[in-house]
Amino acid sequence: MQNVLIIEDEKDLAELLAFNLEKEGFAATCIHDGKRGLDQANADVPDLILLDLMLPGLLGTDVCKMLRKTPRTAHIPVIMITAKGDEIDRVVGFEVGADDYIVKPFSMREVTLRVKAVMRRFEREEQLPAKFLCIGDIAIDTQRHTVKCSGADIDLTSTEFKLLLYLVEHKECVQSRDQLLQNVWSYNHAGDSRTVDTHVTRLRGKLGAPGDIIKTIRGFGYMIEE
What we know:
This protein is an alpha/beta fold. It has two domains: about 5-125, Response regulator (Rossmann fold), CATH 3.40.50; about 130-225, Winged helix-like DNA-binding domain superfamily/Winged helix DNA-binding domain (Arc Repressor Mutant, subunit A, Orthogonal Bundle). The chain has eight helices and twelve strands. It has helices at about 10-25, 35-45, 60-70, 85-95, 110-125, 160-170, 175-185, 195-205; strands spanning about 5, 25-30, 50, 80, 100-105, 130-135, 140, 145-150, 150-155, 175, 215, 220-225. Strand 8 (about 145-150) and strand 9 (about 150-155) form a beta hairpin. Helix 6 (about 160-170) crosses helix 8 (about 195-205) and helix 7 crosses helix 8. The radius of gyration is 17 Å and the shape is globular. The mean pLDDT is about 85.
């Protein structure tokens, strides 16, 4: 049984999330403090973490940073849940290593769908064969999940890496925002296209000049063009 750690200071909301996840076959643990949540993650290494941003003890962004810096927890998928829905807040969440971002208020159905989607995505990636891809000045090691641009290491979040890899594997093919949400984020329903745009902007910025191969197709989506 897959275990979800819920780090959320609103106890009623945390218990409601746990109840709905357990109905879907997950085990769920609730922690209401950032520091204690981080300790729990290091102790139990859950399959996924639902992480609030505004937490007592330690902010969610700091929790996420520490999770990513610790080898024991660096691989755990993290979905941030927060009342802050502005683009800058999303950027910060993704920058510190979140794999998805859900804005309050949300439906329990949306949360369970996103948890399942992220779980499927990570399970699928673990089964992928190792290979090395190069395009322009960008080199992708799919086994180690590392990227180099012009020989220099580029620090990408797990979702930025998946987005780049998918675009490279489908180079010269235009991908709509909905296609990217389905194939990179594993959403099987219409999602928020701003999620895609935010990730592409951050990805281009980190890649620098080599990132210019990611072309915007106005009104539709993106593609890699050498």
